[in-house]
Automatic annotation (TrEMBL):
It comes from Actinoplanes italicus. SUPFAM superfamilies: alpha/beta-Hydrolases (SSF53474), Peptidase/esterase 'gauge' domain (SSF50993). One of its GO terms (biological process) is proteolysis. Residues 473-688 form the Peptidase S9 prolyl oligopeptidase catalytic domain. This is Oligopeptidase B. Belongs to the peptidase S9A family. The keyword Protease applies. InterPro entries: AB_hydrolase_fold, Pept_S9_AS, Pept_S9A_N, Peptidase_S9_cat, Peptidase_S9A, Serine_Peptidase_S9A. Keywords: Hydrolase, Protease, Serine protease. Residues 9-413 form the Peptidase S9A N-terminal domain. Pfam families: Peptidase_S9 (PF00326), Peptidase_S9_N (PF02897). It comes from the Bacteria. GO terms for molecular function: serine-type endopeptidase activity.
Length: 690
């Protein structure tokens, strides 16, 4: 139906469909691609894959080389740092040649206080082997992996399609038996009662919104609905506090929160409301002794910390007042300490407070650019916490920190084989100036010796939505770029959370275009400061960052040689106008509601990549998507590429669809490396750096 020849790519048929809102009629000639079950849709996607393979056939050798570089730098048989919970050390290990992790535990030996790091561990129990579960499957993902407080039961859920609809099961860790208990179409997350006899889980509605919390009695078919959220803007979550005293039901929209709790030792009682929702007020709780700690933004844009009584939740008593410019992101409670995760001046940080004291200290870190956060820490009765640390040049590192002495012990740094030396690379923080005068931070890494004369190839990455921050991070795969002289940059654009809540507010709703113009300003700053030139610059982004990629191709096509758009949200107005689609209603507080507001409709239409394709010279484009993605539906990039070919036919546009995967792409680690090698080979080719 869509023949692929040496003469050119497949050309999708046009079947004009009209859409009218607020008196505005739009003709969508490729709306038919939204029919996933139509054989013509699948035929086009398969033809696009065939064309992409043909158009990149000359890169087969480079793809294999890059794949072998990633594989060769990775310690394939490896082990996570074991975390202690009760009488066991829990860890995940990988084995050479196997796609998935193996989840294990060993008993804590008498007098043992440090995690056992030897590869052979006597008494090892394999709790779950992802390779066995995935055998014969094209895709595999875990949704929950949750051991009961007494260590006797494991709740786990699996997805074999990539659509993030999981099947929940329970395993007896004493006998190894997987019970007959089975629940289909569950969401991420679960929580155990104190005695391990009751399991709480979540299901979704037809729009893929997690909206119901259920109580399951282990060993039976009994499933009782205990909470349902009717407001379509809100998601629900469920968790067990670190203290194991309370089940927490967390209800959130993009800008509003509400929390309920159930005593973990009395799981059949009705949930207790902490504070009823108030539009625009976000809060979360953490149990700590006689109190619930409350992190909130009530009259506190960058959030503050308060507490209320466990016995009678009500008044919020201030603990840490709001400090503009210091964004409090979370609080973790331990029996004698609190650890606050925060963000200031574009960098993450950790603050420690000793219980019963107002004194606090911030952990210090040596590099100018880095990312740090708590890692795991299931134990409540402890004076030591585990943190994860990384930078653009420092591989992922795990430290144990003594909260009393402040001493830090390195437990493990991710091995990078092949003689990696961080001293061979440099990282920099630079700033771009946006059109409105706002200074936008850029994180940069390059191999030492790269000339700043405008001749170096460069890759710039961006996201800029949901207050999600893209902090400096290490990547083994990225070394295949850096060692070929490519400069890598992250543009910390508005819409993310890098510079506090205001940074997010200035990049959403009717200020969304700041995200796009910030990114263009960052690209222009790289050129102006002689890191690269527009002819040797590729941009990369995924999901909402794919929207960013689509927008910049329309507003600044001359600023880039190529665009790599992964699962890109490039037809946002069509999707956000359809409340029956997954996520649409919950997204209205991020983008606005174009159904009700003509102003929002017009604004979204003015930046939608699909709506604004024009006959102009576009950079080379590679769009990568997945057929079973429930977050950004496959047809958005499929329609986008089809319209680009129709309206601006002189460009080079490629579409690659994973026919058996979801939002995150291939699930196995070797398959993921091959996918990344494909992407990087294309980038290197566009940059003429192969």
């Amino acid at each position: 139906m869509f023949p692929v020849t040496n003469e050119g790519p497949p050309i999708a048929r046009q079947a004009p469909t009209e859409r009218t809102f607020h008196g505005d009629t739009v003709v969508d000639e490729f709306a038919w691609l939204q029919a996933k079950d139509d054989p013509a849709t699948i035929a086009l996607l398969e033809s696009e894959n065939a064309w992409t393979e043909q158009a990149t056939a000359h890169l087969a050798g480079l793809r294999e080389t890059v794949f072998q570089e990633i594989k060769g730098r990775t310690q394939e048989t490896d082990l996570s740092v074991p975390s202690r919970k009760g009488g066991f050390w829990y860890y995940t290990r990988t084995e050479e040649g196997k796609q998935y992790g193996i989840h294990c535990r060993v008993p804590v030996r008498p007098g043992e206080t440090s995690p056992p790091m030897e590869s052979e561990k006597p008494g090892e129990e394999v709790l779950l082997d992802g390779n066995e579960l995935a055998e014969g499957k094209d895709f595999f993902a875990l949704g929950t992996f949750d051991v009961s407080p007494d260590g006797k039961w494991l709740a786990f859920s699996t997805d074999f399609a990539g659509d993030e609809r999981f099947t929940l099961r329970v395993k007896n860790l004493v006998t190894g038996e997987v019970l007959a208990d089975e629940v289909n179409d569950v969401f991420y997350g679960s929580a155990w009662s104190a005695d391990g006899g009751t399991l709480f889980y979540i299901t979704v509605d037809d729009a893929w919104r997690p909206n119901r919390v259920w109580r399951h009695t282990v060993g039976t078919t009994e499933n009782t609905l205990i909470f349902e959220e009717p407001d379509e803007r809100f998601w629900v979550g469920v968790d067990l506090t670190r203290s194991e005293k309370f089940i927490v039901i967390d209800t959130q929209s993009k800008i509003t929160s509400e929390v309920r709790v159930i005593p973990a030792d009395d799981p059949a009682v009705e949930p207790t409301l902490i504070t009823e929702r108030v539009q625009g007020v976000e809060y979360s709780i953490e149990h700590h002794g006689h109190r619930f700690l409350i992190l909130h933004n009530r009259n506190a844009e960058d959030f503050a910390l308060a507490w209320t009584s466990v016995d009678n939740p009500g008044e919020w008593i201030e603990m840490i007042p709001h400090q503009p410019g210091t964004r409090l992101e979370s609080v973790d409670a331990f029996s004698r300490h609190l650890v606050i995760s925060l963000r200031r001046d574009g960098l993450t940080g950790l603050r420690v407070i000793t219980d019963g004291s107002t004194a606090a200290y911030d952990m210090d870190f040596p590099e100018p650019l880095y990312s740090v956060g708590l890692a795991g820490n299931p134990e409540y009765e402890t004076s030591s916490v585990r943190i994860a640390y990384t930078s653009l040049v420092t591989p992922d590192s795990v430290y144990d920190v003594d909260l009393n002495t402040r001493s830090m012990t390195l437990r493990k740094q991710k091995p990078v084989l092949g003689g990696y030396d961080a001293a061979d690379y440099e990282q920099f923080r630079e700033w771009a100036t946006a059109a409105d005068g706002t200074r936008v931070p850029i994180s940069i890494v390059a191999r030492k010796g790269v000339k700043r004369d405008g001749t170096a190839p460069a890759l710039i990455y961006g996201y800029g939505s949901y207050e999600h921050s893209i902090d400096p991070y290490f990547s083994i795969a990225r070394l295949s770029l850096l060692d070929r002289g490519v400069v890598f940059a992250i543009a910390h654009v508005r819409g993310g959370g890098e510079m506090g809540r205001q940074w997010y507010e200035q990049g959403k709703m009717l200020a969304k275009k700041n995200t796009f113009t910030d990114f263009v300003a960052a690209a222009e700053a790289l050129v102006r400061s002689r890191w690269t030139s527009a002819e040797r610059l590729v941009a990369r982004g995924g999901s909402a960052g794919g929207l960013l990629m689509g927008a910049i191709t329309n507003i600044a096509p001359d600023a880039f040689a190529g665009i790599l758009a992964e699962v890109p949200f490039v037809d946002p107005l069509t999707s956000i106008l359809d409340p029956s689609l997954p996520l649409t209603v919950t997204e209205w507080e991020e983008w606005g509601n174009p159904l009700e507001s003509a102003e929002i409709y017009a604004y979204m239409k003015s930046y939608s990549p699909y709506e604004n394709v024009t006959k102009q010279a576009y950079p080379k484009i590679l769009a990568v998507t997945s057929l079973n993605d429930t977050r950004v539906l496959y047809h958005e990039p499929a329609k986008w590429i089809s319209r680009l070919r129709s309206v601006a036919p002189d460009g080079t546009y490629l579409l690659k669809t994973e026919m058996g995967a979801g939002h995150a792409g291939p699930s196995g680690r070797y398959d993921a490396w091959k996918e990344e090698a494909f992407n990087l080979a294309w980038v290197l080719d566009v940059l003429k750096a192969a």
